[in-house]
Amino acid sequence: MQRKWPLFQPREPQQPRATSIFFQILLFCNVTLSVFFFCIVGSSLRWKYWFLPSTTFTILWQIFYCVGLGLWIIAEPPRLYLGYEGNLREDSRHLVAFLVLTFLPQLPVTIGMFVQPQMYSAERVMAGSMISFLFVEFVTAIVVARRVVAANTQRWRIKMAYGRSSRTAT
């Protein structure tokens, strides 16, 4: 009976992780910032609806504001979840979905809330901080996605070089 020593079997080289702690911290802080952003924007929306004079221009901004806040509320939890899972699991599909949700609904809605005609100072501060936070997250997510794709490609090449493909021999 022949004994196989683990020392003599070829071993795959260990690959460094492509996750980003900075990106994870940004996502964690964004959860807190999103709660404050929703509280301030939601309370100012209530005040604007009941106490501002109703002209056609303000009614259009109020409709845009409500629709924008609704889109933001719907898109924010899945966006943060996709960024969190994509970073920890090193899944490029989740990170690309995070980038798309950041670029399309979140940035335009937040910028639209920043440039509205009747705005309070607390709204301006929260919208400005959210825009800057989204921009930093977007850039960081691009860097993380590139690292994840490179790491996954390298793992695939190593797996192919060591003869362990996903196909089964028939």
Gist of the model:
The chain is mainly α.
List keywords for this structure.
170 residues; mainly alpha; elongated
Description of the molecule:
There is one protein chain. By secondary structure, the chain is mainly α. It has one domain. 75% of the residues lie in helices and 0% in strands. Helix 1 runs antiparallel to helix 4, helix 2 packs antiparallel against helix 3 and helix 3 runs antiparallel to helix 4. The longest helix is centred in the C-terminal third of the chain and has 41 residues. It is elongated and about 70 Å long.
Fold blueprint:
Blueprint lengths: L20 H31 L4 H33 L3 H23 L6 H41 L9
> What does the overall shape look like?
elongated
Measured on Cα atoms, how large is the radius of gyration?
Answer: 23 Å
Contiguous uncertain segments of 5+ residues: none
Question: Number of helix segments?
Answer: 4
Beta strand count: 0
Helix fraction, binned, reads over 70%
